[in-house]
Amino acid sequence: MKQIKVAPVSRIEGHAQITIDVDESGKATDARLNIMEIRGFEKFLQGRPIEEAPRTVTQICGICPVSHHLASAKAVDDNFGVETAPTAKLLRELMQYGQYIHSHALHFYFLAAPDFVFGPDSDPKQRNVFGIIAANPELAVQAVKHRKIGQQIVEATGGRSISPVTFVPGGITKGLTKEDVDRLLPMAKQAVEYSKSALALAKPIFNQYIDAIKQLGSAESMHLGLVKNGNLELYDGTLRLLGKDGSIVKEFNPKDYLQYIAEYVYPHSYLKAPYWKEMGWENGMYRVSPLSRINVCDKISTPLANAELQEFRKAFGRPAQHTLLYHYARLIELLYASERAVEMLSDPAIMGKDLRAPVKPRAATGVGVIEAPRGTLIHDYDTDEKGFITRANIIVATAHNNKAINVGLKNTAQKIINSATPPEGILNRMEMVIRAYDPCFSCATHTVAGKMPLEVIINRPDGREVIRR
């Protein structure tokens, strides 16, 4: 047996390697994702006051700080047993839409688009963000402006455009003034126009590459995501698991996730792999993602995004399973987030003064679940009677998708790799499978089987070992 290694995987957040096994004839027999980063935030949180958690977890990742801030904030409020102050809840939700605007725009224009604009077999020197800038400067400028709108919404509600700081237990530290709303509302309306333009640009390209969409990353699965009254939901609601046949397997309170989700540890990775507990590891694979969210919802509450959803479903059915359709679904969500930002900024309630609810420390468990841009994010904390964290569990979207990514890599390798020295374009197609998930490996890796898989060796200058732990 021979092995092909694709390292590092490009245009993703974090570090990853693909290992492909080939037989003597050069035919691929297996492929898997290797993630060897170590992140210790679940341990870092232990012993800390729970009110510090939402500001601490933003440091997990510079791409996903809002997601962690908000999921942690919901977990903390749940731990204190308090309902978030009404205006604070609106502002946190608006922050969520700001994050979606900048995160989804980033992924489409700068990470995904080069594969489709230039083609999977194009020169990698051109197949990147700099190639996009050179080929279409106006589009690149629009992409930057689109992202900036999202970041300015986050800054206005979170105090900073990266790693927000405005959480307090039961609320938020700052509200929006009329001047803030007058500044942000035209931006949100512009984000709607930019989102419409992105869809208009992307749909013909997706049609052009429909064969690749059908071929790459095959991993038929169940899908999990939040819904509220059947609508697409990104901040609150119930979790719905949709079966492969389109039937609803289960809809449940997100706080009860441990009743339904278990975690498996691959021997080749530090990234855990959750699965639907009652179906077991072999049959319990599900995915979370923009595609999963538009699969599990019945409709979208905003008119433009809902019209795009109906068009999407006429073309690909429900549930749609092709992994590369994540890019299409992401653009529908980008439009939805922009429309919701307009709706919220048009509502005078967003300028309310009810920003904080009183709280008292207690020994309790708190669970917070939101839809991060990459999929369902869970924060779960236990505290003692003084409000110090005794246990923390974080399950991120990339972990939920871990098994599907590995299945998709294996299925793709067996379809397209017939040589121990495949051309770069073939290996790029393997990377495209991973890029479709927009994975965030810095967020995703924690501990294996409860232990940190790390050995520390300290040597003297002459090479003699002093300590091994």
From TrEMBL:
Pfam families found in the cross-reference section: NiFeSe_Hases
Keyword Metal-binding part of the UniProt annotation: yes
Residues that hold Mg(2+) according to the record: 42, 394, 446
Binding residue positions for Fe cation: 64, 443
Endoplasmic reticulum as UniProt keyword: no
Cofactor needs: Fe cation; Ni(2+)
Gene3D superfamilies given in the database record: Cytochrome-c3 Hydrogenase, chain B
Keywords: Iron, Magnesium, Metal-binding, Nickel, Oxidoreductase
Entry's Gene Ontology molecular function annotations: nickel cation binding; oxidoreductase activity
Positions contributing to Ni(2+) binding: 61, 64, 440
Membrane-spanning parts: none
UniProt xrefs under InterPro entries: Ni-dep_hyd_lsu, NiFe-Hase_large
Family to which this protein belongs: Belongs to the [NiFe]/[NiFeSe] hydrogenase large subunit family.
Protein name: Coenzyme F420-non-reducing hydrogenase (Methyl viologen-reducing hydrogenase), alpha subunit
Gene source species: Methanocella conradii (strain DSM 24694 / JCM 17849 / CGMCC 1.5162 / HZ254)
